[in-house]
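Data card: per-record layout.
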Amino acid sequence: MNTNSKNDNGDSVTRRDFMKTSAIAAAGSLAAAELAVSRSAHAAGSDEIRVGLIGCGGRGTGAAAQCMQASPRVRIAAMADVFRDRVDGSREALEKRDERAKFDDSRCFVGFDGYKELIADGVDAVILATPPHFRPFHLEEAVKAGCHVFMEKPVAVDPVGIRKVIAAGEMADRKGLSIVAGTQRRHEARYQELIYRIHAGAIGDIVAARCYWNQGGLWVNEPRKEWSDMEWQLRNWLYFTWLSGDHIVEQHVHNIDVVNWAIGDHPIRAMGLGGRQVRTDPIYGHIFDHFAVEFEYPNNVFVLSTCRQIDGCANRVHEVVHGTIGSATTQHETVIRGANSWRFEADNPNPYVQEHKDLIASIEGGTHYNEARQVAESTLCAIMGRMSTYTGQEVTWEQAMNSELDLTPPTYEFGDLPLPPVAMPGQTKLI
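The structure for this 431-residue chain is written out next.
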């Protein structure tokens, strides 16, 4: 299989070379040999890697299936979700796909504390795929227990959660545990080669970038008489900021993460605008349906970021990076235009499977992965853009990182949960 791409000068860059470089950078200052010993010991004594699934919706079920595709050693050994029907549906779907998803009924855990019971059950790794609000303390619990982690993006909905994720990532480093995030572009061959070339100077110095996730609407669950406020919001979680972070955080984080990766830094301030123009019915909770944010990065680099979920409009989901001698884009095809023109033409394995392959290889003693901080920073960029848009104020990185904004509900109980009003720029206060 040819995994090389060539530019017009015939220079070759391998995906393997760049994966190695990226993964070593992710390891930070930790000693790779010590980490390899720690990870090998963690999985020693068994040919199986026992994985627990926390969050049994469509994304969690898909991630569990992709994890099994990644290695014959993987076995889905337990499941947890707030809702019993989610556990049962996911379990049935996965069992039909693969015998390695069969396990005893006693390893099905239901309720707000089900994740604790699953982690205490002694799995080697966990998949965290609940609504994003729960990610910080699920990650913290898993790392404390010595579990390796695959966690879906985004990894928090507020700055308090971001700081918890960063702290858990630092704890994972001390324990030699691996964390891979669901920002799958970081594990995708075409993106890896493109970013490698950008960092190698193929487009010169970066002067600006653009990123987009503009598409139509998504699924929605209308309330039912038998559901409390809490249950309806959990089952309709996309539309409540405390659960999803709004779609700039839940979805557009992918594109923002690519820009951070290309630039090699996070923005220093953001100014956003947006609103709720089309999805105004109460079934859509209180989130916005469009955002446009200008991010300012160091060295006077400005990035335009837009995202929209409105039917009947032009779709656009990609990134563009502009440099002094060229530009790079992922629209339609992965190319560099300019002095060092290039087009990606190699194999591009499924990144949703590859991210799990990379995690499993790390658990087995390969290059250490800990993506907690990088995905936390990308998530905070999106939160920062939302904070600016909701309030109409300019927000700096320091303000966002140190903010006391905490969207946690008063209690985790099935009952009344009043919905905060829709944010109003110029009136909603910046916290």
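Known properties of this structure: The domain at 189-348+371-402 is CATH 3.30.360.10 (Dihydrodipicolinate Reductase; domain 2). The chain is about 35% helix and 20% strand.

See the next section for split statistics.
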